[in-house]
């Protein structure tokens, strides 16, 4: 059945050849390289009688922290799943969906948005390869989660693959109802003056939306052009020894140090690809436990990358993006940087039993992956 879902022939052939640099954050080729923590009450202890009992982003300690003084762990390609809904597509980057991720502590959700028959659709590289449905439906689920988790600040990073305009995106935000949470910065340029999480929660403007890239519109002031505010490290890494803290985008900044000096928010891309042909890259799943490890002394581990960048930049990364966030678990590295012990989360593989079956499923996925790879390689050979 996963084959049949791939077989819509011509489109698939085209999409496979366009998987060339199926790099999730890459824009259309025209661009340059371009918890459920619903208010958790802590039982007051005699020594902590005066501290806030309410958690913000899973910790009372984060309420008074500025948005840009918090490390937000992110799910890369969070709409693109490797699960039953996609017949375990090897193009998938996550085992769990975006709202399950939020409940597990993820606070940055990234996805690609494409034009599909005039509408905005969440597609991985091409809608023929992996179509995760309409942007509006996905935003509505995030809206629902925010409605039910009133003390949480969430960030979206949407890749504008087909150069749609602000009113196209704004329509999806308005019809999903998510626009009501849209945070509007006080500055139209990068700034060090971000509000505290508590202030965003109190004003109920708890959603920060970056789009790569968009021309801002006064009608939708909460749709922020990513590279006005954020800089990124390289995203096309194929060896665990090759993660760096160098600036990759935007090219308008000279270096990571320069971007930090300009108060841009640092985003660390921390996911590794495997080339399955010279033209096709898929997430390197075999090493995911090392890649997402919180350890600081293993080459390629998330914990080590975090420390490297913190040292080199003399400031902590504000955002990370990882694949398969439940492995590591990735959130442990954000917690360490934030200096918190989190409350109110629902782990995505919450019980030992679930963990055990998860491993079994990974093996199944591996087997299907091999079959699928053979299929793709066959198709490429035919082309
Ligand atoms: C960031 O938060 C830490 C911990 O509360 C605090 O010590 C530090 O001064 C803050 N940094 C800035 C720039 O506000
Ligand atoms: C994630 O899965 C849960 C459980 O099936 C569902 O309730 C929720 O709407 C899904 N969220 C998204 C973003 O698809
Ligand atoms: C935005 O693009 C749509 C087509 O996607 C077009 O109909 C609309 O006029 C454009 N709006 C603006 C303000 O450019
Ligand atoms: C930012 O730019 C928008 C136009 O996109 C404008 O409406 C708004 O007033 C500007 N905000 C500030 C703080 O300058
Ligand atoms: C890692 O980086 C080195 C040095 O830039 C490069 O020669 C090598 O090809 C890279 N490895 C992979 C697998 O991309
Ligand atoms: C995944 O990465 C590791 C370390 O870089 C490498 O040894 C392994 O061969 C990669 N897996 C695949 C399938 O390429
Ligand atoms: C990393 O450090 C831990 C102790 O924190 C140690 O047990 C482990 O052997 C170290 N691993 C490597 C690869 O050095
Ligand atoms: C951290 O920096 C060391 C020293 O430059 C380098 O060898 C290692 O690969 C880096 N690791 C990560 C994950 O960035």
From TrEMBL:
Extent of the signal sequence: 1-22
GO terms, biological process: lipid metabolic process
Record GO terms (molecular function): phosphoric diester hydrolase activity
Disordered: annotated span: 26-53
Compositionally skewed regions (Low complexity) per UniProt: 26-52
UniProt keyword annotations, A-Z: Signal
Gene3D superfamilies xref list: Phosphatidylinositol (PI) phosphodiesterase
InterPro entries given in the database record: PI-PLC_domain, PLC-like_Pdiesterase_TIM-brl
Protein name: PLC-like phosphodiesterase
Organism: Cercophora scortea
């Amino acid at each position: 059945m996963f084959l049949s879902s791939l077989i819509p022939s011509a489109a698939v052939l085209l999409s496979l050849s366009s998987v060339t640099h199926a790099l999730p954050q890459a824009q259309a080729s025209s661009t340059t390289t371009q918890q459920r923590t619903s208010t958790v009450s802590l039982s007051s202890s005699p020594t902590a009688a005066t501290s806030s009992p309410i958690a913000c982003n899973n910790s009372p300690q984060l309420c008074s922290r500025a948005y840009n003084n918090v490390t937000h762990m992110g799910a890369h390609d969070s709409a693109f799943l490797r699960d039953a809904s996609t017949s375990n597509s090897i193009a998938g980057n996550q085992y769990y969906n975006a709202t399950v991720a939020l409940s597990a502590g993820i606070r940055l959700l990234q996805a690609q948005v494409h034009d599909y028959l005039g509408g905005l659709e969440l597609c991985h590289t091409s809608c023929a390869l992996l179509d995760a449905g309409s942007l509006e439906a996905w935003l509505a689920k995030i809206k629902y989660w925010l409605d039910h988790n009133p003390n949480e600040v969430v960030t979206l990073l949407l890749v504008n693959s087909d150069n749609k305009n602000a009113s196209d995106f704004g329509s999806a935000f308005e019809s999903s109802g998510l626009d009501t949470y849209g945070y509007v910065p006080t500055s139209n340029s990068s700034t060090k003056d971000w509000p505290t999480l508590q202030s965003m929660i109190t004003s109920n403007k708890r959603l920060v939306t970056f789009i790569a890239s968009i021309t801002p519109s006064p009608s939708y002031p909460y749709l922020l052009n990513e590279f006005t505010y954020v800089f990124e490290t390289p995203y096309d890494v194929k060896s665990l020894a090759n993660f760096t803290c160098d600036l990759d985008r935007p090219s308008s900044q000279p270096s990571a140090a320069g971007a930090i000096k300009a108060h841009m928010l640092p985003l660390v891309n921390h996911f590794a690809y495997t080339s399955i042909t010279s033209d096709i890259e898929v997430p390197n799943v075999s090493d995911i436990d090392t890649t997402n490890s919180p350890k600081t002394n293993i080459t390629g581990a998330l914990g080590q990358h975090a420390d490297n960048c913190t040292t080199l930049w003399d400031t902590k990364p504000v955002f990370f993006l990882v694949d398969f966030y439940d492995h590591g678990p990735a959130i442990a590295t954000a917690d360490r940087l934030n200096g918190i012990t989190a409350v109110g989360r629902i782990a995505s593989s919450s019980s030992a039993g679930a963990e055990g079956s998860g491993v079994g499923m990974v093996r199944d996925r591996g087997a299907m992956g091999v079959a699928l790879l053979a299929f793709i390689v066959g198709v490429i050979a035919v082309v």
